[in-house]
Amino acid sequence: TWKEILRMSFDCACISGERETLDLRLAGIELITLCSQVSCKAGIGAATNTARVGTNMEVVGGALRSVRAATTVGDRNQGSLCSTPIEPEVDQLRHIFFDLAFSKLVDFRTYLE
């Protein structure tokens, strides 16, 4: 279940050790982050959109800005996506899943402090 995945991911992220456990710790925190992204309101689409960086970019105040509006892969394919209304029950479950995943991220931050 969702809770078991998050519990195991958190346990992996908090394993103590040296370099031999680094991959397991990274996989644990990446899985918690992915669960948060998938269950957020924007859903998996937000997690998979990538921005294209080109020669028309410049650094302004320490941030990378484009000279003209950047396009994302999702923006170019926006017309081909099918949008269906989300039922309230499904949205409520998504909200519960997001709360569980985000609380594990907060727990991990507390662990790091």
Question: Can you walk me through this structure?
Answer:
The chain is mainly alpha-helical and 113 residues long. The chain is built from 5 helices and 2 strands, in the order αααββαα. A two-stranded antiparallel ribbon has the order 1-2. The longest helix is centred in the C-terminal third of the chain and has 25 residues, at 88-112. The two termini are 28 Å apart.
Which secondary structure elements does this structure contain, and how are they paired or packed?
Layout: H1 2-13, H2 22-39, H3 44-48, E1 57-60, E2 63-66, H4 73-76, H5 88-112
Antiparallel strand pairs: 1-2
Helix pairs in contact: 1-2, 1-5, 2-5
Summarize the structure.
Helix content is 57%, strand content 7%. It is mainly α and 113 residues long.
